Amino acid sequence: MNRSTPSKAAQSAQSAQSAKTLPPGAVPWLHDLCRCIARWLYRPACRVRIRGLERVPRTGPVVLVANHSSLIEPQLIFGMLPRRSVFLVKQELFVGAVGWFLHRIGQVPVRRGVPDRSALLTVTRLLRDGGLVGVFPEGTRGSGDVVEAQQGAAWLVRASGAVVLPVAVRGTLRPPGSRWRLRPVVDVFVGEPFGLDVAAGRAGLAQATERIRATLAALVHAVDSARDPHAARHGDR
């Protein structure tokens, strides 16, 4: 027998451990299929450039934080990641067939604007089992400049000991006054993962949240500068 080939028992154990990184009710094979679809979904319409993918930790708990300016960013990141991921998705989307589908691929509904302890506890359990959880700290779609951030990501890091992985996405928004673009360039840039000590109390959360916000905002600005230095100075995207 070839000793380099994992036994069926080992493969089964690995599969069971991997399934723990998805919430109850998720269908692992459907999750993986949708990752593959998302990886190529926007390729015909956009020129997607992905950099820094090698920085994504392949194992262990990770809180991924990304900027948010359109519905495209979550799908791009979900598809490009080399491992399973669970995102906190606004609760309003969890209705009807769409809600059923989001549950089955392992996404978690979260109430916006209020501390949603139920959602945070659900993904904390996944992180403690070595999962990757995606959070958009701005809380809602906007310019994607990360001027403000909510405290959920810092709370998850404190509760699980996960590392933080910043990801910046640019090019999904049309420039002001533009109606249509022919295959626009969309950049996805993965920053360096970093550990974060979150002190106890509200002050500790606030301090850690500001570090997450500042790190992500700096990464977004770096991507803007690389895309078009003139546009970065004048706030165009």
Summarize the structure.
With 237 residues, the chain is α/β, with parallel strands linked by helices. The protein has helices at 8-19, 28-41, 72-80, 96-104, 117-128, 152-160, 201-227, 229-234; strands spanning 47-51, 62-66, 86-90, 108-110, 132-135, 163-170, 185-190.
What can you tell me about this protein's structure?
The radius of gyration is 18 Å and the shape is globular. It has eight helices and seven strands. Strand 3, helix 4 and strand 4 form a beta-alpha-beta unit. With 237 residues, it is an alpha/beta fold. A seven-stranded mixed β-sheet has the order 1-7-6-2-5-3-4, with helices on both faces. The chain has helices spanning 8-19, 28-41, 72-80, 96-104, 117-128, 152-160, 201-227, 229-234; strands at 47-51, 62-66, 86-90, 108-110, 132-135, 163-170, 185-190. Mean pLDDT is 85; it is low at 10-16 and 230-237. It has a single domain (24-234), classed as Glycerol-3-phosphate (1)-acyltransferase, CATH 3.40.1130.10.
Layout of secondary structure:
Elements: H1 8-19, H2 28-41, E1 47-51, E2 62-66, H3 72-80, E3 86-90, H4 96-104, E4 108-110, H5 117-128, E5 132-135, H6 152-160, E6 163-170, E7 185-190, H7 201-227, H8 229-234
Parallel strand pairs: 1-7, 2-5, 2-6, 3-4, 3-5
Antiparallel strand pairs: 6-7
Helix pairs in contact: 2-3, 5-6, 6-7
CATH architecture descriptor name: 3-Layer(aba) Sandwich
DSSP summary, beta strand count: 7
Query: Which class of secondary structure composition applies to the elements?
Result: alpha/beta
CATH C-level label: Alpha Beta
Give the overall shape, derived from the CA principal axes. globular
Strand content: 15-25%
How is the main sheet built?
A: 7 strands, mixed
> Radius of gyration from the CA trace?
18 Å
* Ends distance: 57 Å
